Amino acid sequence: MNKLILNSLCVFSLLAFVSVGCSQDNAGSTTNSVAAAVTNQAPALPAAVPAAAGSFDDPTKLTAQAPETFRAKFETTKGAFTVEITRSLSPNGADRFYNLVRSGFFKDIAFFRVLPGFMVQFGIHGDPAVSAKWRGANISDDPVKTTNARGTLTFATAGPGTRTTQLFINYADNAFLDGQGFSPFGKVVEGMDVVDKINSDSAERPDQGEIQGEGNKYLKSAFPNLDYIKSATIVSGGK
Which candidate among 112, 124, 138, 191 keeps its CA 20 to 30 Å from the CA of 131? Predict the structure, then answer.
């Protein structure tokens, strides 16, 4: 996929990127990359090996309802940032995110698609066995109640009913995504300067099929300059 330039001539490409990116990653939504949602096709993957023990390896058990508002702090290789979630904006999205954070899912998770001026995408687990467990764990859609403004947090999608674990943070005011069904449910309230510094050298070159099939082994070998989430924790409003 060609690099995207944010101007009036590339809006179509950005829309395609949002859906397509989402296409092959987790859950049927397969790559949930913000810019790739239009196509959503992922290459066939080998049978998954048993996932390592962990509370995040069984999506069917992670169904708690999120608080009406809460904050989560991300520690990354570039520094820390905090997001504030408002459940009423996107209840299903907020619940999924809340459960992912509480379970410890976001550990050694790469920012694998970084397009300055557009968005930064993450959420494919570094262990292929774990990402395989989530690939079919789709959540129902939420109506879009607020715009994809700079700093907002949104699930990537590859079409109706395809959200799983991939998310993106908007680098710009991307209101054109609103009509495509991308429903923001939170925003960065501290550390947006850290988000802005996430390494973008690899842009959108990491292959999502390879990430799902080989995980961080592939990313750390082929794209050694990527930044990663080290941990994410609920810091207020939740347990």
Answer: 191
**Residue 193 belongs to a domain:** yes
Domain assignment present for 129 = yes
Partners of 139 in beta bridges: 163
| Phi, psi dihedrals of residue 100, rounded to the nearest 5° | -65, -45
Nearby residues of 201 by Cβ (< 8 Å), 6 or more positions away: 223, 225
Residue 59: strand, helix, or coil: helix
Residue 100: give its domain's CATH number: 2.40.100.10
Per residue in 80-127, pLDDT (tens digit) is: 999 999 999 999 999 999 999 999 999 999 999 999 999 999 999 999
115 vs 108: CA distance, rounded Å = 20
- Return all residues near 29 (Cβ < 8 A) that are at least 6 apart: 22, 23, 40, 138, 156, 157, 158, 159, 162, 163, 164, 166
CB of 84 closer than 8 Å to CB of 71: yes
| 183-211 average pLDDT score | 98
Strand ranges (E), 87-209: 109-115, 119-122, 152-155, 167-170, 184-190
